[in-house]
Structures are given as structure tokens and as C-alpha cells.
UniProtKB/TrEMBL annotation:
Domain FAD-binding residues, every copy: 5-328
InterPro entries the record matches: FAD-bd, FAD-dep_Monooxygenase_BioMet, FAD/NAD-bd_sf
Protein name in UniProt: FAD-dependent monooxygenase
Protein species of origin: Nonomuraea salmonea
Family matches, as Pfam families: FAD_binding_3 (PF01494)
Signal peptide: none
Keyword Oxidoreductase: yes
Keyword Oxidoreductase in annotation: yes
GO molecular-function terms, A-Z: monooxygenase activity
Alphabetic keyword roster: Monooxygenase, Oxidoreductase
């Protein structure tokens, strides 16, 4: 008999969690509060650890088909265009870059029909000894387990983790966009007080992000594209051209936040996943990747433990140390890359590092985060 889970949130983490449940023979209902299921945002990159998680979910090949290799970590530049480090033409790219919507669609396509309900804003979660009941839009839905993948401003975390502080502003803000521009290899340009990231993505497009400091959250401009272009007008090409090629309405301006470490990701039969548990600065490109890892580890724990409570304790014990360490590292990286005071020392260090050593560090197995291996999930063919 199939077991039943409720997944709250229809983003990449929520869909990955539902797909992982499907892999182990569970049935899941995904509740998404938006009226239309779509991934908000622009671009992203996925490192080898995330690609292994996608492989374990059974969609690695489909993801690779909509991704593009990016050498952003190998091409480090200054605003005047000079290179601090440069990828060689024969270097293998350890990362793939995506439009968020493309990766989201890969996960959605792999789910059984009817598993996702839109316009379903959750307002209450009630736990009993044998299950959990979720309320949305006047409807009550019961299940054995709730997976809360409802983002940095998680409703479930607010309802059940009542002592948890709200997301904290990190003193940084970012402009993001996607332009029609093909054949860019990917790069990171480091400036005093900010940086520009460029990734190639599928269908002849490029994703760009400008990250810099901000005195407070919520500062917005009447013309966001004009403001980004003004700030980067003297930076090397193709940065000004990328901004110019981005439709005005497609430029996104966000403030960067993360979560203080939670003492647990589990309350009874409810588990937090992804940004709801460990929202982090984007500076290590691991936000979505850690969500994918969460999904695989949670499903493996449920498949390997007879009791849900034991499975969730195992999930918490495995995921909390790794995700919180990754979040700490991302926060520290963000401070360094946007600190005007540390800029000169950082540039000098990168310039003096031997190219061979730099390439070794950004190889597929070059760091502990990327070397992660997922637990094995049962084949879906073993379930009726």
C-alpha cells in the first residue's frame, strides 16, 4: 500500500522532494500557493554534487539536456577586462548553468499527473499521533508526513518553529537578468564592493547577476535596468551589452538574506527542506543544490527506517551539519567578494595563485562540497 506525504511549496526543492517520494513508492501531493506553477527567478548553476542528486532522482540526463557548461569559476576578471585567472579551452567545466524555469520543468515533467495543486495557500498544520493535517483554502488534507519546502519566508516554519528568528538581511542586494547572447563561456568579474557573474544558458542566452552592498533592504528604483546599467557602465564588455540586451521588465532586483542556524529541521512529522530550513547567500551557488540533496537524503531515510520519526531524526542528523556549514561558507564568501576594504588583498591573492592550483580547486572533485555522493534510492520499477 502506498504511503502518503504532503509537500508544501512547488519550487525546485518541493518538486524534487515529491519526485524523491515517488522514487521510493510514496504518493505525494504538492501544495503551491501561486495560481500558476512556475519558477521565479532567472539563472542558476549546479555543481557536481547537485547533478549527482538529479541522477539519483532519475532526471540527470534530462537536466543535462537543458543545461549549458559554464567556466565562470575559471574566468576571473577585473572591471577593466584583465584576467586574474583564465580557463583553458580544453578545461572540462565542472558546473552546468540553467534557466531556473528549465530545471523546474524537468522536475515537473517527471512527476505523475495530478500531484500538484496550485492556488493552495497553507494556513494551518495540525499534528496527531498517526498523521498530519494541513489546511488550505478551507480544505483539510491529511497525510503521514509533511515536507515544508515553502522558501525563505516559510509559513510552516513560522507556524511550528515559533522561536526561530526571521530571515536576516546580509547587507547586500543583487540585480539579475537574462539576455539573448550566445557563446559566452561564463565569468566572474570582481570589483571593489561588488561582482558580476555571467553564465551561458540554453538556447543562445546568458544569465547575469550584479551583487553589491546595500545599507538597508527594500531600496528600489523606478528603472531597475537603468540603475544597474549606470553602476556598470565602465565595466568591460559584454557586461554593458548584456544589460542593454535584457528586456526592461525582465531585470529582477532582490535583497540577499539567509537564516540563522536552526536547532532542528524536524518537528514531529514535519520536516523543513531547502530554503525553509537553510536559506543561504548565493555566493557558493549551492541554494538549489542543497535542496536537491535534502530531497534525496530524506527519501533514503524514509526508505531505510520503519518509523517516520526515526527517518526524520536521521534526515536531520545528516542534513543539518552539512547545510549549515555550507551556509556559513557562503555568507563568508559574500562578505569577502563585496568588501571594498578587502578587495585589493583578494585580487592580489588570486593573481598570485598558480593557475594549475586554481584549476585543481574548481575541478569536479576540487572541494568537499562538490565531492558529496547521494545515498541510493530504490528503482521505481520495484514499486507497483
Amino acid at each position: 500500500m502506498s504511503r502518503h506525504a504532503i509537500v508544501i511549496g512547488g519550487g525546485i526543492g518541493g518538486l524534487a522532494a515529491a519526485l524523491a517520494m515517488h522514487r521510493i513508492g510514496w504518493h505525494a501531493v504538492v501544495l503551491e500557493r501561486a495560481a500558476e506553477l512556475r519558477e521565479i527567478g532567472a539563472g542558476m548553476s549546479q555543481a557536481p554534487n547537485a547533478m549527482r542528486a538529479l541522477d539519483e532522482l532519475g532526471v540527470g540526463a534530462q537536466a543535462r539536456a537543458v543545461g549549458a557548461p559554464t567556466h565562470a569559476a575559471g574566468n576571473l576578471r577585473l572591471p577593466d577586462g584583465r584576467y586574474l585567472q583564465r580557463a583553458r579551452p580544453d578545461d572540462a567545466a565542472a558546473m552546468l548553468a540553467f534557466h531556473r524555469a528549465d530545471l523546474h520543468q524537468v522536475l515537473l515533467d517527471a512527476l505523475p499527473d495530478g500531484w500538484v495543486r496550485t492556488g493552495a495557500e497553507v494556513t494551518a498544520v495540525r499534528q496527531e499521533d498517526s498523521g498530519v493535517t494541513v489546511t488550505y483554502g478551507g480544505v483539510e488534507l491529511g497525510g503521514e508526513l509533511v515536507v515544508a519546502a515553502d522558501g525563505v519566508h516559510s509559513t510552516v516554519r513560522r507556524l511550528l518553529w515559533t522561536d526561530a528568528p526571521p530571515p536576516r538581511f546580509l547587507g547586500r542586494t543583487a540585480w539579475l537578468g537574462i539576455a539573448e547572447m550566445a557563446d559566452l563561456p561564463g565569468s566572474i568579474t570582481l570589483g571593489p564592493g561588488g561582482y558580476v557573474l555571467i553564465h551561458p544558458i540554453s538556447r543562445g542566452r546568458a544569465y547575469w547577476a550584479y551583487v553589491t552592498t546595500a545599507g538597508r533592504p527594500g531600496i528600489r528604483y523606478e528603472e531597475e535596468k537603468t540603475e544597474a546599467a549606470r553602476r556598470l557602465a565602465t565595466w568591460h564588455e559584454p557586461i554593458p551589452a548584456l544589460i542593454e540586451a535584457t528586456p526592461d521588465e525582465a531585470v529582477i532586483h532582490i535583497d540577499i538574506r539567509d537564516l540563522a542556524p536552526l536547532p532542528t529541521y524536524v518537528r514531529g512529522r514535519v520536516a523543513l527542506l531547502g530554503d525553509a530550513a537553510h536559506a543561504m547567500s548565493p555566493d557558493r551557488g549551492q541554494g538549489a543544490g542543497q535542496s536537491l540533496e535534502d530531497a534525496v537524503v530524506l527519501a533514503a531515510a524514509l526508505a531505510g527506517e520503519p518509523a517516520i520519526e526515526a527517518a526524520l531524526r536521521r534526515y536531520d542528523a545528516e542534513r543539518r551539519p552539512r547545510t549549515q556549514a555550507t551556509a556559513r561558507g557562503a555568507r563568508a564568501d559574500g562578505r569577502r567578494t563585496t568588501s571594498a576594504a578587502a578587495y585589493r588583498a583578494m585580487v592580489t591573492m588570486i593573481r598570485l595563485m598558480p593557475a594549475s592550483l586554481w584549476r585543481k580547486g574548481i575541478a569536479a572533485d576540487g572541494n568537499a562540497t562538490w565531492r558529496w555522493r547521494p545515498p541510493h534510492l530504490p528503482s521505481p520499477t520495484t514499486h507497483p
